[in-house]
Design brief:
It contains eleven helices and 16 strands. The strands form three sheets. The chain has a six-stranded antiparallel beta sheet with strand order 6-5-16-13-8-9. A six-stranded antiparallel beta sheet has the order 12-11-10-7-14-15. By secondary structure, the protein is of the alpha+beta class.
Length: about 350
C-alpha cells in the first residue's frame, strides 16, 4: 500500500510555547508505515496559506496546522473544496476549532489522532469573502478581538478582563439584518456568527452549534449594564449564554447585515476593517478534517457542575441595593468573577 503524504506546517511564533521540540516529537510519534512526512516553517503572515495551497495542488493527502487559531485558519482556507485533509496540532492560546472537534491539547495525543487518520467533512463559513471555521462577528465582538490581539497576556482570564473592562465603554450600534426568515432590526453590542460552538479557551458563544448542519448560529447581544456584564462573561464559560435575557439567537444559512458606517469585523479572531455591508454564508461540508474516531463534536451542552457558579450570579440582584449603597458594585462583582474563574 502506498504511504500517504503529510506535511506539517509549523508557525514558530504562534501561541505561548516553543516549537523547537515538535520536529523530534513528530519523528518519534508519527506512524511511519502510514505516512511519508515533510515539515515546513512559516516565515510571515499568509505563508501558511501559500504552503497549504501548494500542497493541495500537488496532491498531498494531509496538511497539519501546527499553531494557533490564526495558523489553522490560514491552512484551512487553502484546503477548502479539495481532497487534501486538514489536521491540527494545537499550539495557540485559544485553539477554538481543535477544542470544538475534541482534538487533545496534548501534542502526543494529537499525533495519535493523526495516526488514526479518520477523515470527516465539515461546514465552514464565509464573511465578505473571508473563510472562517469557528466564528466571525462584528461590533463589540470584533472590538474585543482587537483588544485581545493587542494584549500582552493570553488565556481566558485576559479575555474576561477585556470583556469586563472594555464592554461598558463600547457604544452599541443599530444593524439591519436579513436572514433566511426575513428582515430584522437590532440595536446590539455584537452580532456573532458561529459555525462551531466556541471562540476558544472554552468560551462558548454558541452552545449547541454543529459544523455539520449547513447553518450558522447567529448570536445577538443586546446592550447590558454593569450588573449583567459578569453574568454574560460567566455564561460564556458555563455554556449557558443563550439563556441570558440579553441574548437572542437563531440559525440561518445566509445573512446580510447593514450598518451605518464602516467598522471592524473578525474572522476566527482576526480583526479587519470592512465596509457597512456584510455578507455571511455557510459552505456545507466544504472542508475535510482529521478527527478522533472515538469522539464527537463538542457542541457545548451545559456543564451542570459549573451551573452552581452561574447561580451565584443569578442571585446577585438580591443584594443590588446593598452594593449600590457601598458605591463599589462593579468592582465587587468584577473581583469575585475573576477570583472564581482563576479557581476553575
Amino acid at each position: 500500500m502506498d504511504k500517504k503524504k503529510i506535511v506539517f506546517i509549523i508557525n514558530p511564533i504562534s501561541g505561548t510555547h516553543s516549537k523547537d521540540e515538535i520536529p523530534d516529537l513528530i519523528e518519534k510519534r508519527l506512524d511511519h508505515e502510514l505516512y511519508d512526512y515533510e515539515i515546513q516553517l512559516t516565515g510571515y503572515a499568509g505563508h501558511a496559506t501559500e504552503i497549504a495551497r501548494a500542497c493541495a495542488e500537488r496532491g498531498v493527502d494531509v496538511v497539519v496546522a501546527v499553531g494557533g487559531d490564526g495558523t489553522v485558519n490560514e491552512v484551512a482556507r487553502a484546503l477548502t473544496h479539495t481532497e487534501t485533509a486538514l489536521a491540527i496540532m494545537p499550539c495557540g492560546s485559544g485553539n477554538g476549532l481543535a477544542r470544538h472537534l475534541c482534538i487533545p491539547m496534548d501534542l502526543k495525543r494529537a499525533l495519535d489522532i493523526i495516526n488514526a487518520c479518520n477523515i470527516e467533512a465539515f461546514d465552514y463559513g464565509v464573511i465578505n469573502d473571508l473563510p472562517f471555521f469557528c466564528t466571525c462577528g462584528m461590533g463589540f465582538d470584533a472590538f474585543i478581538s482587537l483588544k485581545f490581539a493587542q494584549s500582552g497576556k493570553r488565556g481566558p482570564i485576559t479575555y474576561v478582563e477585556n470583556v469586563l473592562k472594555e464592554g461598558l465603554k463600547y457604544k452599541p450600534e443599530t444593524y439591519e439584518v436579513e436572514a433566511d426568515d426575513g428582515k430584522h432590526r437590532y440595536k446590539a453590542f455584537l452580532i456573532a456568527c458561529a459555525n462551531a460552538s466556541q471562540y476558544g479557551n472554552n468560551a462558548y458563544i454558541a452552545p449547541g452549534a454543529t459544523m455539520k448542519d449547513g447553518e450558522m448560529d447567529v448570536i445577538i447581544m443586546e446592550p447590558f449594564d454593569a450588573f449583567e456584564a459578569p453574568q454574560i462573561a460567566a455564561d460564556l464559560f458555563m455554556k449557558t449564554l443563550p439563556s441570558h435575557s440579553k441574548i437572542k439567537t437563531f440559525r440561518t444559512k445566509h445573512l446580510h447585515i447593514r450598518r451605518k458606517e464602516p467598522g471592524a469585523i473578525h474572522y476566527d479572531g482576526d480583526p479587519i476593517m470592512t465596509n457597512p455591508e456584510i455578507d455571511v454564508h455557510i459552505e456545507p461540508l466544504g472542508i475535510r478534517i482529521l478527527t478522533d474516531p472515538d469522539m464527537v463534536e463538542d457542541t457545548g451542552q451545559p456543564n451542570f457542575l459549573l451551573n452552581a457558579f452561574s447561580d451565584f450570579f443569578n442571585n446577585i440582584n438580591n443584594v443590588r441595593e446593598d452594593i449600590e449603597r457601598q458605591g463599589h458594585r462593579f468592582q465587587v462583582i468584577n473581583k469575585v468573577l475573576l477570583r472564581k474563574l482563576k479557581n476553575l
